[in-house]
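SEQUENCE-TO-STRUCTURE ENTRY
===========================
What this section holds: a protein sequence and its matching fold, both as plain text.
Tokens: labelled as protein backbone structure tokens, with as many entries as the chain has residues.
Question of interest: how does this chain fold, as expressed in backbone structure tokens?
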Amino acid sequence: MIMSSGGRLKASMLVLAILLGACVSSSTGTSRSTPTPSISVSVVAMGTKAQTRAGNDVTVSSYQTLGSQSSSSVNVLVAAHVEVCATTHATAVSRTLFFVQTGDRTLHPSVADVKKPALRAGLINTHQCRSGWVTFSVPRAKKKTFVVLVSSTAIKWQIP
């Protein structure tokens, strides 16, 4: 199932609202401060291993344009090859943690597995890794800028 651009925008906004709402800190006492997001964002080059705040290692090693599902489609399928390693404790992995960001800063969620072998969702034991492809449907006319992981940390891999 491919979401419409309106559906992707709503999904992206929902994800951001949840993350910002769940990850804020504020002081207690007589003075009130403006809540600030506690999630950090890192930008790294494609192929670079990055560590989440939870201590897991994640690498987006490559990015490919797969093509469109039809010649009249306004979207194009793209895929990112990812590897997730549980370094200090078991961790869950899912394609739903990954997005492609376009030049207008819209986050586009993953879609059903197209590129194989796909990243399998599930629990990874400590000192184990899991890798596979994550597929996205993004507007053909938009510049694709980052593959983004949103978990305990937001990590952005620059799309060349």
Summary: Residues 1-5, 8-34 have pLDDT under 50 and may be disordered. Residues 39-158 form a domain with the Immunoglobulin-like fold (CATH 2.60.40.1240).
